[in-house]
Amino acid sequence: MNPKAATLLGILTAVIVAMSFASGAWSSTETDDGLQIEITRKGAGKQVVLSQGAKEWFMLIEVTPENAVILKQEKDHERYLVDESETHDRPMTADDVDAAIADYINSVKTRVRKK
After folding, report:
1. What pLDDT was estimated at residue 113?
2. The pTM is what?
3. Are 78 and 54 in contact (CB under 8 A)?
4. Is the dihedral of CA 27, 28, 31, 33 positive or negative?
């Protein structure tokens, strides 16, 4: 594994561990490429805000006993590039929420690295 991938894997692992133990608190970290990541527990769900300069990515997972709603937004300065939501017909488990947050973080990191 190359050193950069190992560093990113270490950061992601730290973020996931922090998410697992956070109960209403938030965790914050910054990656090597200047991407700031903040994760907050929201009831049975979580939210993550990633930012780099004027760009911001946001994901909120709200879990109720009946369903789960996922909101995603991406903006550059004050202009929204993405503003979407999806509703799942069943609640998500804590593991589902953590996996969705980790996938979103990885997706944003990949897009940031490509630029």
Report:
1. 85
2. 0.74
3. no
4. positive
